[in-house]
Amino acid sequence: MAAAVARPPLRRSDTVNPGSSELSSAAATLTLPRKEDEVSPASVAFESSAQRFALNVALVFFFFRISFLHEYITGHTGIDLHLMIVLGGLCYLGCLISGRGAAAFRDKCTWLWVGFLIWMTIATLTSTWRGGSIFQWNDYVKTIFPIILIIPAVVTVKTDVRKFMTVIGLAGIANTALGFVSSDFKTGRMGLEAAGSIGDPNDYAAHLIFLIPAMVYFAFGLKKSVFYKIVGTLSVVAALYQILSTGSRGGLVSLMLFVLYVLVTGDRKLKVGILLGGPVLVLLALPLVPRNSIDRLNTLFESTPQQHTEAEESTEARRALLQASIDATLAHPIFGIGPSVFMDYEAGVAAELGKHGMWHGTHNAYTQISCECGIPALVLVVAALGLTFRYLRRVRQLGDDTLKGASATLAVMLFGFCVAIFFLTKGYNFNFLIVSGLAIAMNRMVSEGNAA
Known about the structure:
disordered N terminus
């Protein structure tokens, strides 16, 4: 039998007076678990099931949202299924049940987007035409802003990131395919009339520029088979064909800057792939592009007298719209003229001067936000986008291979879209919030060590 270990005698200083404050402090740190603090296995299982349900619904929601299939179906059948409201509502309900409905509010990037929504709300209330602004505000609140709350709530581990990136890539392939089943053209240019939000050729080109990196990720991501690579390559060629077929000069400029950004920021393997594979993909797509679209794109470099006149008129109109949006910003710098009322406001100002209104959007998303919602709203958006890029850079530096690939892809997607909207009236689009939501989720994983 082992000898008993001798214990030192208890000193007077080690004793606790039953009536002293030391006893109260000791009792406070040694409280017994209460019954209400215990979590039953059934409750944990229920919350886990709710989160899986929310994730699966979110994947379906974002496939339709990004591919615009729901708008295409409505445009061809005349039946609005309200898929975005139904799927978005079910998804967020699952987030609330799982206890992660407020997860996004732990990040300051979310609060920048909340700040923009608040400012947009005030701008709507003070709008020069409140009836015209309320529709834009209602659409933003119902179908766009919830994105920044949903993604951080359902994306909790790196496998969720991979699923989301795959869905975005598939949505890009589906959106590209819509161009081949559509007979909508505008003066010989590829358009997508049935999908209203991207029906304009310039909008369609910008959306495809946003999606091409995700299509590449889908095809050449981690451990992808030859089948995926073939499908992805053909899809990228088809997307380039669609972009060139739109005849969008802004889209072509954005595409060139997009490629330059990849060459500057990408790794060596990606740079070699762009330099060797890029020209081949363009040569495969170029012979199929409609002649009218090619002629329009050529006006960026050279033009016939007729084309030169058309290009000059288009450039002059855009310059006038840009100046009008700047003037509106300076006239209403705090809360703007109201969301989505620039055309009406500009026409009113022109009428006062005895001129005809142009009845077009700003053709610049940044001055659209500043003149319609005020300069503080633009500052909030730019700050949110800057923080998003910062998160993506941090994830690329500290994350594992899955997160590094996803963050690099999302950074290219966001850069391409930010350039494209210099020429478009797309200041309230969902594209920003998708990338921000994923950046918030991945940054949290890196911070908490969940990626491992």
